[in-house]
Amino acid sequence: MRKTVLLLLLFSIALVLAGCAGFSASRENDYDDSLVVVGFSQVGSESDWRLANTASMVSALSEANGYRLLFDNARQKQENQYLAIRNFIQQDVNYIVLAPISETGWESVFREAKEAGIPVIVVDRQVNVEDESLYQSWVGSDFYQEGRMAVTWMEEQFSEEDTPLRILHLQGTEGATAQLMRSRALEEAVSRHEAWTIEAALKGEFTEAKGYEVVRDFLKTGTAFDVLYSENDNMTFGAMRALDEAGISYGREGKVKIISFDAVRKALQFCLEGKINLCVECNPLHGPRVDRLIKSCEAGETVPKSSYVEETFFTCETISQQVIDSREY
Predict the structure, then answer these.
(1) Terminal C-alpha separation, the chain
(2) Do 171 and 262 lie in a common domain?
(3) CATH code at position 214
(4) pLDDT digits (tens, 9 = 90+) for 84-105
(5) Does the model's pTM come out above 0.85?
């Protein structure tokens, strides 16, 4: 726990410094040339999951572990990631690691990296490119399977085929793999059940502030719903605040059942308290996985094109304080 808090503190300091200083001029600066130089472009710092993901990467790709890490916070803008990748190429890094904002639009910069002889490793969200040789490997979650876990739970909880089920769908950043696949799983389930309806699909952008804003405004319409299907925990926290303000009960004993994704510690605590019904895990700790991939590449070994992380789910009936305390994020 203390280690995680310290890493997050160091990360916050690094963000401030990065915002002031920007990139180093080149790899010819004074540092140990035995280190593997990695340029990492991160989506931003929009959620607790993202902070844990960055802390994991910073910890794994440290000088003590044989790396020099050049970090860039894209602040939710894809054009910032294009700029970061091109700066990494100019600095002649050994590897580029990308957590992409969206799936599309990467062919040009990936080709530039390939022509420069720099392997690209994609983490978290996936990329959609015609030529898959443009990137070395991808590691992340099976977001579609996460969605299927959620809808399977819904099918078990609401087993009466002719009972209407009204769903409020709170979506993440449009075009991100997590949004596309979690949405796909829900939409497929609704198409299988005639009595299920999506009352609205709101754009929450994976942030607590936006989740609160769009749910607050939706509640003013007076449209009733039975389930909140929220594509990440931070949007869920914002939605819970909006429901509290509107006097609408939720959770185990409430009117609205809540499904949330990521399963960060705060969400699991709410789950234990009966405020969130289902937390679907999305593991952010990709740093050690990227470290293993790079070390395999350095050793001349063949690495898998795709690596999925095993994940599970938690309900307010099965979660325990012991489980929560054992979590790293």
Answers:
(1) 8
(2) yes
(3) 3.40.50.2300
(4) 999 999 999 999 999 999 999 9
(5) yes
